[in-house]
């Protein structure tokens, strides 16, 4: 599946971010989450631009390695597609059916919302 | 939630087993999956009973540590409960409604089955 870099890094961090060092987590957050440049992070932390770049590359490689081994994001995305399909079917059906289906739809919606933590 | 040891170890291995050494994975599979005794594993691998015990303890501690940091099993179990509830509601409803809901139910069932895959 195609996915932009920021979305993929966000997912990788959602799943495996706690396995990185605090500094790696922080740099990723600033670079991918807050759109800081390498130079801005370097300046804020009193390190070279190259050091920031290396830290980000190493962190990304670590995260991808966890996903290569565990494949939990791949599984999560497949489930999410199926859930979305089920929710859509129920959504369409809901117009002329009460109670129980509506509740099922709510539950599916809750699951879709809790997925991303 | 309460859960027996074997079930919990199976879940831990499903999620994080690939992060263990091959030997750790094998010993866990034999001990928890195939009900081998420590002594039997020791004999098969030409090591002491104590070495088998230590390997299992270390592996278990590693797995629990990943779950403590990432919490993916906890999240998975909560989702699973919600999915099961939604599936049950749809199941009961299904008796007097065709097509679309039945398909949604199938999808939920597929998800429930792929969870442990």
UniProtKB/TrEMBL annotation, chains A, B:
Keywords associated with the record: Coiled coil
Residues forming coiled coils: 49-96
The organism's place on the tree of life at top rank: Bacteria
Pfam family, one: UPF0122
Role: Might take part in the signal recognition particle (SRP) pathway. This is inferred from the conservation of its genetic proximity to ftsY/ffh. May be a regulatory protein.
Matches recorded under NCBIfam families: YlxM
Record-stated family: Belongs to the UPF0122 family.
HAMAP family linked: UPF0122
Protein name: UPF0122 protein SAMN05660706_10652
């Amino acid at each position: 599946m195609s996915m932009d870099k920021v979305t993929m890094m966000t997912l990788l961090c959602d799943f495996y971010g706690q396995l990185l060092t605090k500094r790696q987590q922080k740099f990723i957050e600033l670079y991918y989450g807050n759109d800081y440049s390498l130079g801005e992070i370097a300046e804020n932390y009193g390190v070279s631009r190259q050091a920031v770049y290396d830290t980000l590359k190493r962190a990304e490689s670590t995260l991808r390695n966890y996903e290569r081994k565990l494949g939990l994001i791949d599984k999560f995305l497949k489930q999410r597609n199926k859930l979305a399909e089920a929710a859509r079917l129920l959504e369409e059906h809901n117009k002329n059916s009460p109670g129980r289906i509506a509740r099922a739809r709510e539950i599916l919606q809750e699951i879709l919302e809790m997925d991303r933590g």
